[in-house]
Design brief:
With about 130 residues, the chain is mostly beta strands. Helix content is about 0%, strand content about 55%. The strands form three sheets. The protein has a five-stranded antiparallel β-sheet, with no helix packed on it. The protein is elongated.
Length: about 130
């Protein structure tokens, strides 16, 4: 599990955090002012990167949380078999089978480059890069 520990006050919208053992992208972040007997609290709302579930976290701003180490990579689509896509990584030329996201089903064709992420042992195609070769 590749994670780093940071304080809640360093989190920002659009960055990632580990909630319930899943890497999540932060969609909203609010902090309350410190009260008479306590520290300021932060409320973090995030969407799961791999399962699209909404999760929340409420902790003091000086509490520690894990953030995932996200590896963004580029690969070329070799073949499409139904709901799976075979991708060749452009750096180390290894082939990977990944599920085809529904929102990219019409854009992903053989020969196109895609960006995918790897975090905490999971991989997901995020977007296409450029257009399909002729």
């Amino acid at each position: 599990m590749a994670t780093k520990v940071v304080e809640v006050k360093t989190l920002k919208i659009g960055k990632y955090v580990v909630l319930d053992g899943e890497p999540c992208k932060i969609v909203s972040l609010s902090t309350s002012s410190p009260g008479k007997h306590g520290a300021a609290k932060a409320r973090v709302e995030a969407m799961g990167v791999f399962d699209d579930q909404k999760r929340t976290l409420t902790k003091p701003v000086n509490a520690k949380v894990d953030i995932p180490i996200i590896d963004k990579r580029v690969g070329q689509v070799i073949s499409i078999q139904g709901a799976n896509v075979q991708i060749m990584d452009m750096e180390n030329y290894e082939t990977i089978d990944l599920p085809l996201p529904e929102e990219l089903a019409d854009k992903v064709v053989e020969g196109i480059e895609v960006e995918y992420i790897e975090a905490m042992g999971n991989m997901k195609i995020m977007r296409t890069k450029g257009s399909a070769p002729k």
